[in-house]
């Protein structure tokens, strides 16, 4: 990684309500860190090489707060069921295949390649229960230059044998060995505890995971309040919990000291939202998945108003699209239907808000990520939208909006993660 | 156009609830007409050349029942307003530019090129009020080999001067001259009467259009019951009409003898639906547009149950995507949110139903179009989805479902319209 100066048209998010546009500007990047966007090159950096992206759009790299690597292979298929039936019918049989190292190598290769050729620079990724397959995925992601948290999934109940850890002891032993292997082998790719969700994890397993969390100081990711059937099931399984979130919290596995991502939060009660806020839990808003599995639409603009930590997620393969641009599109579209069909007191998401979620909102989970402000990691994607022909010149904000709906991997011109050029 | 035999894996729609899959089969195409899919080449056709598409998917060409060519240039932009404000703020200023022939040639060139490189083989297209620009668009579409209805738009009230026809006489004179020019110049590209919608057309204009319809035996396209503000406005403007549809019907401009497409029908009352059924009006369901403009979701599976004529539409640029595959995706997604958020008595659309709408449902407006059954025009798109890598072999239906979510112009391998090979 060499210190250099990036020149071009920068867009980033000042706040949920404002996109900052700086054209023909310079961004010195020293040790992979942004030194602030400036109109002329400061004296101190005069000798550095300049990479000039001309009129192209330079956006912060995007953070995908929730997706399932083993589901990538069946994205866009089996879109005819709700969550619990979908898991049984499509997901678990597919995830069982990840005991086969040949299948793993190929399938995770496709996944990693697609993630590299997207606007995503950071991601929080579910693998499967298989330690070897999870390490293979981490190896591929490490080589890619992306910076990801990856979780070996834990499940020891209410699922087919093929995707169930045989007992609590072996589950915890496997998980600890995987954590140690990951910590020793990878720099950019970090382990994250990943109990699938309350229905698939026994109390003993959750207690053991808390011990591992404390021992290795690990973040955690799971699912929360996605679907009515799921929520009712959790109520049965955890009758003492005050809400679904509390079913994690009573094991100390719901944020607080250790960072935590909960995917969905479509149907979170006020009580649950308070707990989310108090514990600083990150909400991974997954709009396309919540459409495809007919789960509903999380009231995201309300979550932003409440000051909750919210990021955006593709949730492949509940979501079919690995593109965070398209996740922004789906977030805006779903919020409009929620406003029209369900509750017009909650405003639809603006482009500004969706852009904030995809960059700053999720980026915060990974550190100082998601902006070009001084001190932030230089995560960036450079879009060349010139092939999206238009008979008039367009301003940068309009070009960004259009990219959300229309740009794909063909329009990705360059990509940096923490200063490292990926392509 | 040469008689030949197409070989490959065919998928078409038997009914709204069934996709027919025929692998390794032959389809003789004589004079551009399908002679039926057969397992072996019949004696009578033994000498014909065979075009073998191997394992690729051969789908019926799709019919886009509603889109605006002049809006193509701003698709994916200005997605922050409801219909009436969106028209005033973005649409009318853009459409006004179509008085400039240089702008027209370029912008319609982009549009035509995109339509050619989509799965659409037939379309019902809105132009602008400008006769010369509309003929330019028709010229470009004619050269492309697609088969379209194109409408010079009529508007003589409630809109800015820049997009208003100056008076009824000149509007009708221009429209008649345009019809005559189109009829004399084009074979594949046909004129369709296009009063924009009730709010922008005076009674005198509508009466005159009826005269032209009778004189030239023309179909008609317009908008219906898209947005609450629009519907309330029509009620004010046409107090005698029993419903919005009746505001067209009292001029004889609502189906019956002459085919008619009404876009949207999101909020049609039972009375309006009865009129639609009685008059055989085609509903152009435009799911993405109805999300983007926060209009709502039409209850399409109910319309199918009622036996109404329904097709699918992209409604560019209320919709951002010109792809009918993606229109199918949006139709399914929107129907799931409608089911979850508004009314769970109306089932979400299945893949089968969405495929039916995109092929047979809309195709019927253009004749015997949208199937590979004997006697149907050979409209087809051949998809090569091999670059959508998958670690397992997939059955054709799964590949079709995946294409709905993931395929784009890169996956289009060949395209035929009425037997003519476009590429």
Summarize the structure.
Chain A has about 425 residues and is of the alpha/beta class.
Task: List the topology elements.
Two copies of one chain form a homodimer.
Chain A: E1 4-15, E2 18-30, E3 33-34, E4 50-60, E5 62-68, H1 83-96, H2 101-116, E6 120-126, H3 131-144, E7 147-151, E8 153-154, H4 168-185, E9 189-191, E10 194-195, H5 203-216, E11 220-224, H6 228-237, H7 244-249, E12 260-264, H8 270-279, E13 282-285, H9 287-292, H10 300-305, E14 309-312, H11 324-341, H12 351-363, E15 380-383, H13 396-406, E16 412-417, E17 420-421
Helix pairs in contact in A: 2-3, 3-4, 4-5, 11-12, 11-13
Q: What do these coordinates show?
A:
Two copies of one chain form a homodimer. The first copy, chain A, has helices at 83-96, 101-116, 131-144, 168-185, 203-216, 228-237, 244-249, 270-279, 287-292, 300-305, 324-341, 351-363, 396-406, and strands at residues 4-15, 18-30, 33-34, 50-60, 62-68, 120-126, 147-151, 153-154, 189-191, 194-195, 220-224, 260-264, 282-285, 309-312, 380-383, 412-417, 420-421. With 423 residues, chain A is an alpha/beta fold. Chain A folds into two domains: 4-60 and 370-421, Urease, subunit C, domain 1, CATH 2.30.40.10; 62-366, TIM Barrel. In chain A, strands 3-2-1-4-15-16-17 form a seven-stranded mixed beta sheet. In chain A, helix 11 (324-341) crosses helix 12 (351-363) and helix 11 crosses helix 13 (396-406). Chain A is globular. The model of chain A has no long low-confidence stretch (mean pLDDT 97). The interface between A and B is large, with 48 and 48 residues.
